[in-house]
Fold this protein.
Amino acid sequence: MQNGRIVRAVVWLVSVAVGALALAGCAVPGEPYRPAQLGAGESVVYVYRPRSVLSPGPVEVFVDQTPVGRLTRNTYLAVVVAPGEHLVRVQRRSDATRLVLVGEGQGAILEAGASLLGGFVSLVDPGEEVGRERIAGTRGVEVRGEGGG
């Protein structure tokens, strides 16, 4: 009888902890995703992190070696840049980089991930269709880069 109460108490505590973590992943600042408004001679690089309880802690985002922001779960950055090649890097305990090429008025979408164990990061191109679907559920901000290319 006593063991049953202990087991129920442990299950309840674990459920509450998982629920709190899930809610923490949902409560993010920023505006709901919307495409960046580009002017003449501008392009955009989107970097997003999907919602995941198993991917804790923020990752730092750099474009062309300039820090542009931090991503937590379920957030994105829209970095407005000049058309051309841009080096995108995410960093936590490790780093991952991608070189992207964007034309005038175009954009690139990259997904940043961070592992639960060790904090290793990844940066992948999910493809335009998948990237647009996944970024649509995130919240974030637009950042104006320093141009370059």
The chain has one domain: 2-144. The first strand starts at residue 31 and ends at 32. Residues 2-144 form one domain.
